[in-house]
Amino acid sequence: MESKSRRSALLSRGQLRLLIWVLPVVILLLSLLGPESQPEAVISADSDRRIYQQVIPQQTLFRLHLIAPHPPALDASTQLRQRLITQACIMRLQKPDELGDWLSAQGWEVQVQSNAGYRLLQLKSGRPFADSDVRQLLQQLQTPPTVDWSALLQRTQAEQYMMRQNAEVWLASPPSSNEHLSLDPLADYARQLQPSDWRITLTGPEYQSLSSVIFDPAPSSAPFEDLMLSPKPLPVTPAANAQLQLHRWTLPQVKSIQDFAQLLLGRELVVQPLSRWLKQQLADAPAHQAGYSLRWEATQSGGLVTLLLQGEQWPEIPAWLPQQLQPENVETARQTLLKQLEGNTGQQQWMDLLALYQLPPDSLQRLPTQLEVLELSAMQQWLQSQLLSDYYHTLSLPH
After folding, report:
1. What counts of helices (H) and strands (E) characterise the chain?
2. Does pTM surpass 0.90?
3. Residues pairing with 389 in the sheet
4. Residue among 284, 382, 345 at smallest CA distance from 54
5. How far apart are alpha carbons 69 and 379 in whole angstroms?
6. Is the Cβ–Cβ distance between 310 and 289 less than 8 Å?
7. How far is residue 387's CA from residue 378's CA, in Å, rounded to a whole number?
8. Which of 51, 127, 194, 363 could make an SS bond with 359 (beta carbons 3.0 to 4.6 A apart)?
9. What is the pLDDT of residues 87-121, one digit of tens each?
10. Is the separation of the CB atoms in 108 and 122 below 8 Å?
């Protein structure tokens, strides 16, 4: 006997008709909701604000920045001293018989960067950084490398000699009142790289439990022998192809998030009137030689601004610059900063500034609100006070 099979529809016609009407609405609602938002990255810090950390899940490597503040190099002698210590630090880290083999055994990559007011060591690792390893690195790093210091000084001074053939470099690090100072590199090295002076920032895919024990001083060792070196006289003033004028002033100490917001906004504001004036000058006189460079450098005491002007037609900066700021300049500068703060790109560089100034770890989250309340009159007054400070000075080439 032939068997008969019965098939029943999963959905009735009425249900299908309802689904056709409802499904587009559901798709529209889901598209409006967008993808699931990622939790906001939070920066944490220890109680002494020496170690700052942020977990970035999408980051594949662990990154550790070591920050050692030092006095800014305001003249050629101090610049030479700082360059000598930086070169010795690089040799200590890279030479196999110094720390090179030990770092390779840890699987760490390291780069050294020298800034006006601090030395920065950037380390990368495929695994979290441990207390014992970082403490050992800082303690060993304080010991100067075994090198021919006279030869190292000669090489460093030769590099500086070549750099200072450039008129702009010469202006930015002019001769000091005493260019024949003796150097004691062993003492300078140990003093500037003490474990207790470092600041640290950390990022990585997971939390890393570093503690303040990493700053423990190195075990007592025999004092270093005095090694006094006498640098050779630096070259004479270089020739300048056009009139160059340096304007330099200090920035106030950053003690709060309010100070930090004012410093950052001021940095962005100053660029706009300078660019506007230069554009107009070149439009009026295309053959006229004019230009500028502006460098803001963070230091533990606040910062340093170096403005180099090329050409003879520039107005008097202290009286002119604050008055050129306009309300629209403040808003443009504010939006530029807010855009820079977005996302995790460059986040550790922002954390480095928090560590240098030892600001609260939530400063970046609070920064937009602080930027919003800063008005034109307050920024004009802030800039004017820096330009009228006792430190403000100018220097020009040709003299």
Report:
1. 13, 10
2. no
3. none
4. 345
5. 28
6. yes
7. 14
8. 363
9. 999 999 999 999 999 999 999 999 999 998 999 99
10. no
